[in-house]
């Protein structure tokens, strides 16, 4: 497809903003998917092409958090197993469930997250330095992580919020470390999905890579902000993004 200079600028700018939003909270695809569709892509092609930037952004964010010593890899295997199982079940469910279920699920999840942050912020924002729990010592975390995976497989949009709730709420990672692990989980999820989309020949690589430049730059800067920001600032950023996610769900 033909790509104009305006398209290039639009993709880099929206990718940059999405990289920041996805690294610190979630919901950046609410910007990038419309940008890709404005270029004339069908929804399924835009959805597939968007994953190129998400993978690059996830890798950038993960490496950045690890470089600053904020990516805790001691329990990643037990964390990823229930998420992958839930993701597979969610993908199967999405294949057979009526499409009209997606909007209520997305909207309900966003509103629930906003209420939790507003009314009981300690659930998703433990104090910095809080000692996280291991999955093996927290049986209930399997349900939280599995549900996060299921949601990601079923809906995908806004999965960053659900991952933070699962990692901070059940395993008590502070928001910085929860965001770091969220980037790893999202990278694993999305890489699998991207592979499927590549096999199905749904990915347009040139716009996808242009978008990835913006995603990567935004994620790199967001990691630096997350490391230096106060927990209260991160909490309110997460709250505002959930409200935007709710608004986007109502407009779907």
From TrEMBL:
<dbReference type="InterPro" id="IPR002781">
    <property type="entry name" value="TM_pro_TauE-like"/>
</dbReference>
<feature type="transmembrane region" description="Helical">
    <location>
        <begin position="180"/>
        <end position="199"/>
    </location>
</feature>
<feature type="transmembrane region" description="Helical">
    <location>
        <begin position="5"/>
        <end position="25"/>
    </location>
</feature>
<comment type="similarity">
    <text>Belongs to the 4-toluene sulfonate uptake permease (TSUP) (TC 2.A.102) family.</text>
</comment>
<keyword id="KW-1133">Transmembrane helix</keyword>
<dbReference type="GO" id="GO:0005886">
    <property type="term" value="C:plasma membrane"/>
</dbReference>
<keyword id="KW-0472">Membrane</keyword>
<dbReference type="Pfam" id="PF01925">
    <property type="entry name" value="TauE"/>
</dbReference>
<feature type="transmembrane region" description="Helical">
    <location>
        <begin position="205"/>
        <end position="227"/>
    </location>
</feature>
<feature type="transmembrane region" description="Helical">
    <location>
        <begin position="105"/>
        <end position="128"/>
    </location>
</feature>
<feature type="transmembrane region" description="Helical">
    <location>
        <begin position="148"/>
        <end position="168"/>
    </location>
</feature>
<keyword id="KW-0812">Transmembrane</keyword>
<feature type="transmembrane region" description="Helical">
    <location>
        <begin position="234"/>
        <end position="251"/>
    </location>
</feature>
<protein>
    <recommendedName>
        <fullName>Probable membrane transporter protein</fullName>
    </recommendedName>
</protein>
<keyword id="KW-0813">Transport</keyword>
<feature type="transmembrane region" description="Helical">
    <location>
        <begin position="79"/>
        <end position="98"/>
    </location>
</feature>
<keyword id="KW-1003">Cell membrane</keyword>
<dbReference type="InterPro" id="IPR052017">
    <property type="entry name" value="TSUP"/>
</dbReference>
